[in-house]
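sorry for the late reply, my laptop died twice this morning and i had to redo everyting from scratch. anyway the thing you sent over, i finally got around to it. pasting the sequence first so we're on the same page, its 446 residues, then the predicted structure underneath. double check i copied it right bc i was rushing
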Amino acid sequence: MSLNENVTPVSCAVSWKLDPTTNTFTGNAIWQINIESPTNFVKLHALEIEITSLKVSQYKKPVKLNGTDYHGDGLITLKTSENLNEGRAELYFAFKGDIKGTIGIHYSGSDTTVLQTHFEVTHARRAFPCFDISTVRVPYKVTVTVSNMSDPSILSNQPIRSEKTSKSEKMVEFEETPPIPVYVLAFAVFGCDILSVNKDLELSSGAVLPITVSVSAGHKKYPIQLLLDATCKGVQECSDYLQLDFPLSKLDVVVVPKLCIGGMENHGIIFLDGTETAPAKGKKVSNDSLIELLMHEIAHMWMGNLVGFDFWVKEGLAQYFEKILADSFLGRKCSLPTNVEGSTAPVELDKKKKPEPAEVKKKPSKPSKKKAKKGAGTAEKKEEADAVDNHDVFNGEMYSKSLYWVVNAEQKLGKQEFLKRLSGLLEDHVDGFVEEKVFLDTFTTK
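ok and here's the structure:
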């Protein structure tokens, strides 16, 4: 899937400034794009944010705009009065929006001391103007500034590059990410004390990976030491299985008070929903389901993040690894399904799903100039319903068929040959995307 045949996104520098006292954020995004052949328009996404300034330039000279079309589904078209020619061009956006709901930039449930992001499947467009499709993979430079919050802890995909603190705000600049899809870009802000456990994990290759598990101090009962032990073992074993080191220089596992799904594989900063990991009253936490959830997100660091796949493929692979990694850590018998002979890939099911269900289900609105918003008065409940709609791809039939196909492929080839082919596929497509046919051919040819 491509938004622009003539335009290739190259990189993005994005900064946000959050103000919890007004429940708003502002920011700017600078996109470097490559023009493959002359064109007078560029398509990208922005939804429920107001674009307050927009500039296009090429060869360090401004390019005059000829209007901006808003299509009501988060898709926008920037039109220029003259062609952008072959070569590098730059798009500059200033924008603002509201901190709300359960997607985009939002509070962690009812806990207003914790701010976080959720961008999967197509919610990054609610946080900044971007190319919000999974096949677009670029490096991001992220800066997060928080105002009117006492000494917040700010985390993102990469290690901190620099930080500045004044009386009323704190700014943190992070190292540039490798090329990633925008849905795994993330940050979290804790305006409260956090509890952390950490370990420098030495991988089989000799590389050392710092791993940290964190939770807000108000949730002391979360089993963070268990999560740290499981993370270390899961990362080590997944790396060994794939013969590929962990693809980043650090890994954070952050237990947030509330997430709209159980876990999220943000690259280098996994989010886990606190309601999934907290023990219910009078009950012990279910180690099996908790560890499987964690291992699932760890597997995505390679399958989905380091290398992109169609949705059913990445989820099928992650489920396969969640089982074998959790089995090892928990010391239990193999929990992979056994009756899978003849399983077919859920290709047709995957094609039936709408690529952007949240937006497709809405009636197109007519926002005013320089805005990419829904109609005024939209209720927060509607936004939360959209979050559920946008996760229609996360359905039981899709998941079970995806896992069965992967297990069937492994049983036909044998585990060693299956992992060898998967490792080679990943190594050949680092920072890229594997088309569905290439994936299927890899495991169905002798």
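The radius of gyration is 22 Å.
thats about all i looked at so far, will dig more tmrw
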